[in-house]
From TrEMBL:
Gene3D superfamilies according to UniProt: Nucleoside-specific channel-forming protein, Tsx-like (2.40.230.20)
Homology family: Belongs to the nucleoside-specific channel-forming outer membrane porin (Tsx) (TC 1.B.10) family.
Signal peptide location: 1-21
UniProt key word Oxidoreductase: no
Protein name as catalogued: Outer membrane protein OmpK
Pfam families xref list: Channel_Tsx
Entry keyword Chaperone: no
Entry keywords, A to Z: Signal
Length: 260
């Protein structure tokens, strides 16, 4: 309970700080279409709780950086154009993520940051909230930037409750470049959950259910910003032993953003 309260408090502090001026800030709203691969759809339809369905989602996203650290967050409205509660994966879902990183010290010129994130998704008769508390840093090599983290993981899940759920390691990374006279960028986010608690290891498989203590989750994106206010994106979404399903899952996300 103490870990839960600390994570939520840090997220709230970060959210309040977003309103202040900073060294950088950004914000956008976007329309997104996520299409699972045919193999992913075929494998998950018979699962007890891992069925997938292509869907659209609307997103509001933003972040800010200051001398104390940085905050990033988004809110997604999934299946905004429908709400099929009787169809697996067809209900309207609400997803929020807040990441707050606070500068602690520098070791050999490398910043050490307190890292925390809260990820919450919920729909009809379902919710899942992940909380991570740990350490992270910032690394840059020219136009390439890399922000890794490692922390303890707590999860609150429908039908399971709140428990410590092992550890999570991950990163966000990217770089900007110019091609054909146009500005582009490549980004990636990735998370590895390991040493998961037995309450969270049950996954759907073609033969029923199975147990997996390690899972992968992430996406790689290519972004084109022809004008300052508009960005178009193409993402490859992937997961391994995650999202309720054993084995590989993958999807393509098409995005169009309006930048503030």
């Amino acid at each position: 309970m103490k870990t839960r309260n600390l994570l939520l408090a840090l997220a709230l502090v970060g959210g309040c700080t977003v309103a202040q001026a900073g060294d950088y800030s950004f914000g956008n709203v976007s329309f997104n279409q996520l299409n699972w691969s045919p193999s992913t759809l075929d494998r998950t339809q018979a699962g007890p709780f891992g069925a997938k369905r292509n869907f659209q989602y609307l997103e509001a996203e933003g972040g800010i950086g200051r001398s104390w650290g940085d905050v990033y967050g988004f809110f997604d409205l999934e299946n905004w154009n429908r709400n099929d509660k009787d169809i697996p994966a067809g209900d309207r879902r609400y997803t929020t993520k807040v990441v707050a990183r606070f500068n602690l010290a520098e070791v050999g010129g490398v910043p050490v940051k307190l890292y925390t994130h809260v990820y919450d998704t919920r729909g009809h008769n379902f919710f899942d909230q992940n909380r991570v508390l740990g350490l992270g840093t910032d690394l840059s090599f020219g136009k390439v930037w890399f922000k890794p983290f490692l922390g303890v993981h707590q999860e609150l899940k429908y039908g399971v409750g709140a428990n410590m759920n092992g550890y999570m390691a991950g990163y966000v990374a990217g770089f900007d470049f110019t091609a054909f006279g146009q500005p582009f960028s490549v980004t990636q986010w990735h998370e590895t959950e390991f040493d998961r608690a037995k309450e969270y290891t049950t996954l759907a498989s073609p033969t029923g259910t199975t147990q997996r203590r390690t899972g992968q989750n992430g996406a790689i994106g290519l972004w084109w910003t022809p004008i300052k206010s508009m960005t178009a994106g193409l993402q490859y979404r992937y997961a391994v032993n995650k999202l309720g399903v054993a084995g590989n899952e993958n999807a393509v996300i098409y995005s169009l953003k309006y930048n503030f």
